[in-house]
TrEMBL record:
Its main location: secreted. InterPro entries: CCN, Growth_fac_rcpt_cys_sf, IGFBP-like, Insulin_GF-bd_Cys-rich_CS, TSP1_CCN, TSP1_rpt, TSP1_rpt_sf, VWF_dom. May play an important role in modulating bone turnover. Promotes the adhesion of osteoblast cells and inhibits the binding of fibrinogen to integrin receptors. In addition, inhibits osteocalcin production. It comes from the Eukaryota. This is CCN family member 5. Keywords: Cell adhesion, Disulfide bond, Secreted, Signal. It comes from Strigops habroptila. Residues 87-153 form the VWFC domain. Residues 9-85 form the IGFBP N-terminal domain. One of its GO terms (biological process) is positive regulation of cell differentiation. Gene3D superfamilies: Complement Module, domain 1 (2.10.70.10), Thrombospondin type-1 (TSP1) repeat (2.20.100.10).
């Protein structure tokens, strides 16, 4: 590190920090989200600088938010700004600190990690199969509640497939299935899968079928192995 840059805070301290301290009689009124803190000299109360705001030795950043004065892009210590000490992540225009847990919606809980983020659902993703007391279950949005809920009321709605009677079941089986997955091979023969209850027992199972996205290109004649 440049010795001139390293010595900069000590030079500024000697120039700005006078003893005894002389501070205004009334502390400043800070904008929302900016707490009152001691200046870099440890003398007077000032408004802590927020993310992206200019800073220097005297005008310190809000350490309660994990901010430090970043001199990395500041020649001779001028033009520094407040930045996070560790790599954060940005979601929907808001920056979160590394390790911070947040909820972008009532249905998700996320954690900022190494510049990215991972999320887990807060709503149950269970599957409810038809039963004698609830032959046509479906999940609906409920006013005032975040997560959808299962109901058994008979209502007009478009459904995939028609209910059918299985000789082994005393009630209609409402057909349910996911979309077929992408083919396992980019060329030539492969297979795709889906989860469906379209079987004689009306039970969820993984089904497979053959697929071919496109034929594989023929190998050039000169690529054949030599005898």
């Amino acid at each position: 590190m440049d010795t001139q840059t390293t010595a900069l805070p000590l030079q500024v301290c000697a120039q700005l920090c006078r003893r005894p301290c002389y501070c205004p009689g009334v502390p400043p009124r800070c904008p929302r989200g900016s707490p009152l803190v001691l200046d870099g000299c440890g003398c007077c109360k000032i408004c802590a600088r927020r993310l992206g705001e200019p800073c220097d030795f005297l005008h310190v950043c809000d350490q309660s938010q994990g901010l430090v004065c970043d001199y990395s892009a500041a020649p001779m210590g001028r033009g520094a700004t407040c930045n996070y000490t560790e790599e954060g992540c940005e979601v929907n225009g808001r920056v979160y600190r590394d390790g911070e847990v947040f909820q972008p919606s009532c249905k998700l809980q996320c954690r900022c990690l190494d510049g990215g983020f991972t999320c887990i659902p807060l709503c149950q993703e269970d599957i409810r199969l038809p039963t004698p007391d609830c032959p046509y279950p479906r999940r609906v949005e409920v006013p005032g509640k975040c997560c959808p809920e299962w109901i058994c009321k008979m209502q007009d709605m478009p459904v995939r497939g028609c209910p059918y009677m299985s000789p082994l079941l005393p009630y209609p089986c409402q057909e349910w299935s996911t979309e077929w997955s992408a083919c396992s091979a980019t060329c030539g023969m492969g297979f795709s899968t889906r989860v469906s209850n379209q079987n004689r027992y009306c039970r969820l199972e993984t089904q497979r079928r053959l697929c071919m996205a496109r034929p594989c290109p023929a190998l050039p004649a000169n690529s054949e192995p030599h005898q």
